[in-house]
Amino acid sequence: MDIKTATALHRLRLISIPEALSFPALIIFGSVLSRVSDIDFLMMPLGILHGVLFVIYAVLLLDVWAKTKWPLKRVALFFLLALLPFGGLYGDKLLKRYEADGVIAARARREGVVSA
Predict the structure, then answer these.
(1) Is 40 inside a domain boundary?
(2) Which residues contact 16 (CB under 8 A, 6 or more apart)?
(3) 115 inside domain
(4) Which structural domain range is residue 97 located in?
(5) Predicted pLDDT at 115
(6) 3-class secondary-structure state, position 40
(7) Sorted alphabetically, which Pfam families does this protein's record hold (predicted)?
(8) For residue 103, what pLDDT band results from cuts at 50, 70 and 90?
(9) What does the alpha-carbon distance between residue 10 and residue 7 come to, in Å, rounded to a whole number?
(10) pLDDT of residue 44
(11) With 77 labelled, which of 57, 61, 92, 109 sits at a CA distance of 20 to 30 A?
(12) Residue 7: per-residue pLDDT
């Protein structure tokens, strides 16, 4: 794995956790609190924050797809995980594994254990 691919995976991992937590925060703090109390000023900022994080996640996912040449099924899985509340937490776990596997494979190629 080259440095650009590793960086792209790492950036996707960095955005996956906040994106995963922004959707439940929008549901809990925005929707529920606005219905049970007069606190409705949280809906717009939380909605904007979640929307921005989701767009950043989608752009970074496309960047990772272009650099890693993942199959479409894997990219679709990560996109679907972003649509589920807390799905990005599982996505982060998978990304961590892919990142570690890539580093191990790159070290093995560099040491001549595996020819690529």
Answers:
(1) yes
(2) 57, 82, 88, 89, 91, 92, 95
(3) no
(4) 3-110
(5) 53
(6) coil
(7) DUF3817
(8) low
(9) 5
(10) 81
(11) 109
(12) 85
Buried/exposed code over 102-113 (b: 16+ C-beta within 10 A; e: otherwise): beeebeeeeeee
SS3 1: coil
State how far the Cα of 75 lies from the Cα of 12, in Å rounded to an integer.
12
Task: Copy the structure tokens of residue 88.
Answer: 């990005």
Average pLDDT for the chain: 84
Distance CA(78)–CA(101), nearest Å, equals 17
Joined tokens for residue 61:
């996912």
- Asked whether the beta carbons of 106 and 5 are under 8 A apart, the reply is no
Among 51, 57, 44, 45, CA closest to 17: 57
Residue with tokens 């040449």: 69
Is residue 53 scored above 90 in pLDDT? yes
| Residue 61 to residue 11: CA distance in whole angstroms | 9
Dihedral over Cα of 99, 104, 109, 115: its sign:
negative
pLDDT > 90 fraction of the chain, expressed in percent and rounded:
36
Span 25-50, mean pLDDT?
Answer: 79
Q: Phi first, then psi: what are they for 96, rounded to 5°?
A: -60, -40
Q: How many domains does the chain have?
A: 1
